[in-house]
């Protein structure tokens, strides 16, 4: 029970702020500067002007995001748990079946995010933690979430994350056992070609992993049934936990590319960019030569190069649909293409944002198949760049207007990774932007009609 | 465009950590100490031993939670917005109908919490912000959330919160207009009597408020239709925004008690407790004599006194159901009472936690009406205290076991305000605890059968 006396940590750690900022502002500053320099190399490699207004502070933002997103390397579980262990009598002397010390305690649905060690993109985690107290001690409930976050805020892979959280809680609380279930969601960016060729591309890769210690070490132990019985409310049942001890290393979609193809591409890219990413990894406190990290710089650069400034020449063929030809005596009707998927890269943070584009226009009714693929091409063209959503919206509207006539309305709905993986961590938030031209700009009824045609589910399905 | 040059703020403000911790660790320390002292007075007034292990650090935790929850008083919008304004060309020179500068930009579903100025309890906020850029400038999307949070982290009331966020963004960004819609949710604690007498007590009070500036100032402007059109996806339609300019001051359930009754109660309570709460309000940087805050200390103390140590003598009448009488030759069957509501107060943070209790037991089948009200009484008895969920679970199991026989299983599912309104802000998370006695502790099938009988929706409906 000596841990209860070490309360001097709690003052600094209760809100987790002080230690971080001390580190960031003193001896860790060189790490931030090194990442900034590396990001400048990457921006150069993308053909960007690093003095462009929108990019000027991007290196600093990226450095801070990476440091913030990996602050777990600089946090200690002991500091969090000690001072938050409380004496609490159990009901019986048996372990595992009583309230207080003894009964199973579960915190469900903790939203976290982590960084994929294979590609450096953030992935989302829904974390469920359970433990069976012993030694007449329980831990403050919020500490389960804080400890999980320490390991999430590192370069990770779902199985290791689950194991590290489990092991750290076991050693920190010394309970009868700890169980961890993670539902992980990794964005699956299409590359440029497949974005055009495969409209049914799946945006997410999912993984469900578990880890257990003590009374949970045996995956067939009854106490797992109790734990998973409580999680059934959250859409998990025991049958789907077959991955519990899966050592599947290829959950990251960047790894599932054929090795040959990847290495060819990697060989053809600027070695300075690869070195820059390796230096970012070092600056985060990791060893770029760790087995799992060796291919990471190549994968990150390959992904980044999707957004190269000069990557794509838009091949929009106006022959397919010549507005002059269509000006007939037929009355033009309101048309729309909804839920055109887009993929883009936030130029402020070098983090993905993606979602759907809805386009309304007035046109006589023909050639609609060609029109849909044309509009999807326009959306991809402006998506695969360093972007901001407002500009993307405007550029799509301008281009569509030049092709399909002046009455155009564009709505872009997006999830921004930077909104969940930066300091603010607003997981549920999403963004919508509108551009309205011609009749749409002057006629509220036309706008309302178009907005009402957009399905409610357009963004939540992403 | 001079704002773009003031980048020296961004380094410190990008993750919002440094300034806070500097303040907390130096000149603001006296404020924290003053709150700690006040909390000790309150704990004494509740008849608690402030040296009890579970309470020893409660004054510090409460002080830090209050300071953290009101840090908006010590933040400046200018610092957040400046350095995050980006030049972005609009499509046309008209305001409000083009992408980039000109087109409507909306961030939806930002989860915030705030503190009610009438009762000092936290309330939840789902925040939607829109603005129409002008002057060829857009603001970084995450800043809309950060600015909203500055005003949420104060003692607030929904209408004022919406107006302050709107006004601050308007002055910070200088756009064509700003619109703010807030969906607010305030916990409605029953007092001791009504908890027993009114089983259909509604746990939440809701408020929907809006505020607009510039092109949104006229609530009938078309641009409101565009904004609300985008929000329709989130369950809001224009018809339900009639409260837009409502000046309803009584949304806080603590205010809706009849004035006479409240003042009688307030007169009867320890004036030292009232003074202590007033000193907390001062320490947060507010004026306890501000009109809206005058009755707050009395309301907070009245609510706190629900959890007085010696408040309630359990009047469980074992005559109603004598276990000896029931021991017959009839085979006992598994019985359960699900979704018994409970209300409690986290002794670590002096913040509410509440949810449902499910009780399984073996019994012959009779007297079930009496049994349900008896079990609900037991749940309330142990709920209306300074508690921890683990102990609550154990105490209910012990008491039920002494009345209904040794085979008892208790599951408590709860939402902890401290999990959303402390630093970790895990809005979606919730907690489950189990105690299993007698047959339930040895028979996994009995446990699984009981767990399966608990409806999926038991916690999400809260």
Structure description:
Chains A, B: It is an enzyme of class 3 (hydrolase). Chains A, B: Residues 35-187, 275-454 form the GTP cyclohydrolase I domain. Chains A, B: It catalyses: GTP + H2O = 7,8-dihydroneopterin 3'-triphosphate + formate + H(+). Chains A, B: Homodimer. 2 copies of one chain form a homodimer. Chain A has 462 residues and is of the alpha+beta class. The first copy, chain A, folds into 2 domains: 2-245, GTP cyclohydrolase I, C-terminal domain/NADPH-dependent 7-cyano-7-deazaguanine reductase, N-terminal domain (GTP Cyclohydrolase I, domain 2), CATH 3.30.1130; 318-453, GTP cyclohydrolase I, C-terminal domain/NADPH-dependent 7-cyano-7-deazaguanine reductase, N-terminal domain (GTP Cyclohydrolase I, domain 2, 2-Layer Sandwich), CATH 3.30.1130. Chain A is 38% helix and 21% strand. Chain A contains 18 helices and 12 strands. Chain A has helices at 10-13, 18-25, 29-45, 58-69, 77-81, 141-152, 158-173, 192-197, 222-231, 259-268, 271-283, 296-304, 323-326, 368-383, 389-404, 417-421, 439-442, 444-453; strands at 85-87, 105-116, 122-132, 137-139, 155-156, 177-187, 204-214, 333-346, 351-363, 386-387, 408-416, 430-436. In chain A, the strands form 3 sheets. A 5-stranded mixed beta sheet of chain A has the order 5-2-3-6-7. In chain A, strands 10-8-9-11-12 form a 5-stranded mixed beta sheet, with helices on both faces. In chain A, strands 1-4 form a two-stranded antiparallel ribbon. The two termini of chain A are 48 Å apart. At the A-B interface, helix 2, helix 4, strand 2, helix 6 and helix 9 of A face helix 2, helix 4, strand 2, helix 6 and helix 9 of B.
């Amino acid at each position: 029970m000596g841990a209860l006396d070490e309360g001097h940590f709690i003052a600094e750690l209760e809100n987790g702020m002080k230690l971080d900022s001390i580190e960031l502002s003193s001896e860790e500053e060189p790490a931030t500067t090194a990442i900034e320099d590396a990001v400048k190399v990457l921006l150069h490699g993308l053909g960007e002007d690093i003095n462009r207004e929108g990019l000027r502070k991007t290196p600093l933002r990226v450095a801070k995001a990476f440091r913030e997103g990996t602050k777990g390397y600089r946090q200690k579980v002991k500091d969090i748990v000690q001072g938050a262990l409380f004496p609490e009598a159990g009901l019986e002397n048996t372990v595992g079946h009583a309230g207080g010390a003894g009964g199973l305690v579960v915190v469900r649905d903790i939203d976290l995010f982590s960084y994929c060690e294979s590609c450096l993109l953030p992935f989302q985690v829904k974390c469920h933690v359970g433990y069976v107290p012993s030694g007449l001690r329980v831990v403050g409930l919020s500490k389960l979430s804080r400890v999980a976050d320490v390991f999430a805020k590192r370069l990770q892979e779902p199985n290791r994350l689950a194991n590290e959280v489990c092991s750290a809680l076991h050693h920190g609380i010394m309970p009868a056992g700890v169980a961890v279930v993670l539902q992980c969601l990794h964005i699956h960016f299409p590359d440029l070609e497949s974005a055009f060729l495969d409209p049914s591309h799946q945006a997410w890769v999912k993984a469900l992993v578990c880890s257990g210690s003590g009374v949970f070490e045996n995956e067939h132990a009854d106490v797992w049934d109790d734990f998973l019985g409580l999680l059934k409310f959250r859409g998990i049942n025991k049958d789907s936990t077959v991955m519990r001890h899966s050592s599947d290393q290829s959950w990251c979609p960047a790894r599932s590319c054929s090795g040959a193809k990847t290495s060819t591409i990697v060989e053809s890219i600027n070695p300075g960019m690869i070195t820059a990413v390796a230096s970012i990894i070092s600056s985060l406190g990791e060893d770029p030569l760790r087995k799992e990290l060796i291919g990471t710089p190549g994968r990150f650069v390959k992904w980044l190069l999707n957004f190269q400034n000069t990557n794509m020449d838009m091949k929009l063929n106006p022959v397919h649909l010549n507005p002059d030809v269509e000006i007939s005596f037929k009355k033009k009707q309101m048309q729309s293409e909804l839920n055109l998927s887009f993929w883009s890269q936030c130029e402020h943070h070098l983090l993905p944002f993606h979602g759907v584009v809805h386009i309304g226009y007035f046109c006589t009714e023909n050639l609609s198949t060609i029109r849909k693929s044309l509009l999807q091409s326009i959306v991809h063209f402006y998506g695969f760049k360093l972007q901001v959503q407002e500009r993307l919206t405007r550029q799509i509207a301008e281009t569509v207007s030049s092709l399909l006539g002046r009455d155009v309305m564009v709505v872009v709905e997006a999830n921004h990774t930077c909104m969940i993986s930066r300091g603010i961590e607003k997981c549920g938030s999403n963004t919508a932007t509108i551009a309205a031209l011609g009749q749409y700009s002057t006629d509220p009824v036309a706008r309302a009609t178009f907005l009402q045609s957009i399905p409610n589910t357009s963004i939540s399905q992403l």
